[in-house]
Amino acid sequence: SCNFCHAPHSKRLAHLDKKHREALRALPAAKAKALVFPVLQEKAVAFDSSPSTLRALDALARACEVAPGGASAVKSRSDRSLVVALTAVSLRVVLAALHRVAAEEEPWTESVVEAFVEHLRSVAVGRQGASAADA
User: What is the largest CA-CA distance in the chain?
Assistant: First the structure.
């Protein structure tokens, strides 16, 4: 089963390849967060659009100093390639990317990212409990 949502998955999840990981590391932290956050926001809202998740996303945006709901202006080809790659991977991989970028710049943001991860885990566990009760 998955270490994030604890549900079984039929195949190995996609991940960022070496080129994209290096491109993300090479970006200034502010630009990396501006590229990663809109993808994270889209994936998180698709996963759960409850008011508590939206509040948690806003708190995460404030901690990472990015505008919630704002699409980043992707100009270069390498940036577009990175955004496409982030869009193709799981929410967990995008969260890990944001976690690395945010924690390197300001270590205190690590706790906010971890709180968001815990929130999403609790949503996933709640869904599993609800679906088990329905069965």
Answer: 49
